[in-house]
Amino acid sequence: MKSNWVFALGLMAVLAVAAGVLWWTRQQLPPNPPASGQRVHSADAAALPGDPSTVALPEGWTVIAAAPAATMTAEEYVLGGPLAEFYLKDKTEVPKLWGWALETHGGAKALAPMRVATWRLVLSGGLHDAGVLVADADGGALYKPDNAAVAIGWRNGSCWLQRGELVLPCHRQAATLIRALLWFHRAQTVQALSEAAWTVETAGVVEVNGQSHNAVHVKGGSGGEMAVVYTDIRQRRVIGVDVGMLTKGTEAPELGHLPSRTKLWLADLRPFGGAVLASGLRVQVEQADGLAVEDVQVHVSSVEGGGKLPAKAPALVVQSPLSIGVRAGGIGLVFEVGSHDKFGARVGEVLKGFDRFWMMGQFEAVEAFGPVGTPLDSAVQLWLTPLNHLAMQTPGLQPHTKPLPADAAVARKVVKVPLVQVPAALQQFMAEVEKAGHKPAAERRATSRGLAMDNSSALHVVVEFEVPLAAP
């Protein structure tokens, strides 16, 4: 998202199946989504192996707050009174529908400055987060969380993670989220979908969740995508988007295992300047097995036109030289492993126990080796560390929550190596640290943080080594 390597280790079989699923034909529109209250997956904290000790969350951590209530409806905005019902017959009527949708969302003059826009968002439900999205209806987006060290970028079908100087391939959750947020922006600016870059495959009326909606199946764009855009029969505004896999042959290799489909449902219209936009979004993800995962709610607090985005996807940067820094303490989830050869299976066991799609993308897996002075490949632990402290609000985590150590000085290096060679590469790095005049701290744990995976030929992982240093 390429993938977060620890996630891939746990769910490799599922991903392989997902890559081969063709979820759409030109004549087939999506079935009804599950009702918003339906819960398909559940997690049982008791099923997770681990230690029972708990640590309370620090005081003062951010609590998710709802966005302001909607202040108007699309019908209230339209001048001249309520609209009559319009049922789309075929794709020749789509230009007329786009024109009406454009007016319902504020008109061409109001929406033109929003083609590139900056959104202030709060996420809740299956994913706890808050941050700023800059999106370009032509195919670019960048989401920067407030409290996390990793930003998510998208440009024309390529996804990347920005982590300081590193540029990493996306894991599946990140790619799913940024593409959903891009479509949330794109669908409401409307005019981009009416341009030559997009082809209308089919159009008509479909039943969704017990209601009739106009549906336009589009394909193309600068990144080669396909989606069904739903509009309201009466109000004619965009109410939802069903986003499919990328068009065959256009997706970047690391995106081959995107979920079968992502469904977006827009709500709570509010005026933002002259535009009338949704201040609420519900994101549903459907796996290849047809099961949905728990929803993510997106709340918009502000939108303004403009914003800066990379003109193209940056080149990957997956290695960094030795550096000295501080390792801050915190809290995370701690599980005993034993030895390195059991690490992958243990990660898969833990993630399967949680059974939450979005949670898996909010944590990084750290392999904590035996304390310095003991055999390196002994007493190995798995630390799941949150990218954003809001992730610790996920239900079921507290029984496995423990304090993680702080170190005044650590030696760091990011490398790309075969997975099986991680312990040997760490041993080599420790020798490099000592050659540079530093001494590893006795009885402190050296760690390997999984950042990304490349399985295009052999299973290689991008990991960040950290070796605690003794005081000079």
* Share in helix: 10-25%
Per the principal axes of the C-alpha atoms, what is the gross shape?
Answer: elongated
Helix/strand/pairing class, anyone?
A: alpha+beta
Q: Trace the largest sheet across and list its strands.
A: 6-5-4-3-2-1-13-12-11-10-9-8-7
> How widely separated are the two ends?
40 Å
Largest sheet: 13 strands, antiparallel
Number of helices: 8
Number of strands: 21
Beta-strand percent range: 35-45%
How large, in whole angstroms, is the Cα Rg? 24 Å
Mean pLDDT: 80
Which residue ranges are poorly predicted, with pLDDT under 50 across at least 5 consecutive positions?
Answer: 1-72, 74-81, 247-254
Order of helices and strands: HHHHEEEEEEHEEEEEEEEEHHEEEEHEE
Characterise this structure.
By secondary structure, the protein is α+β, with helices and mostly antiparallel strands. It is 17% helix and 37% strand. The protein contains eight helices and 21 strands. The protein has a 13-stranded antiparallel β-sheet. Helix 1 packs across helix 6. The longest helix has 18 residues.
Summarize the structure.
With 472 residues, this protein is α+β, with helices and mostly antiparallel strands.
Task: Give descriptors for this structure.
alpha+beta, 13-stranded antiparallel beta sheet, eight-stranded antiparallel beta sheet, 21 strands, elongated
What is the element layout, followed by pairings?
Blueprint: H1 5-19, H2 74-77, H3 94-104, H4 108-111, E1 116-125, E2 129-136, E3 140-145, E4 151-155, E5 158-163, E6 166-169, H5 172-189, E7 198-208, E8 211-220, E9 225-232, E10 238-243, E11 261-272, E12 275-286, E13 296-305, E14 320-327, E15 330-338, H6 343-354, H7 357-360, E16 363-371, E17 380-386, E18 401-404, E19 407-418, H8 422-435, E20 445-454, E21 460-468
Helix pairs in contact: 1-6
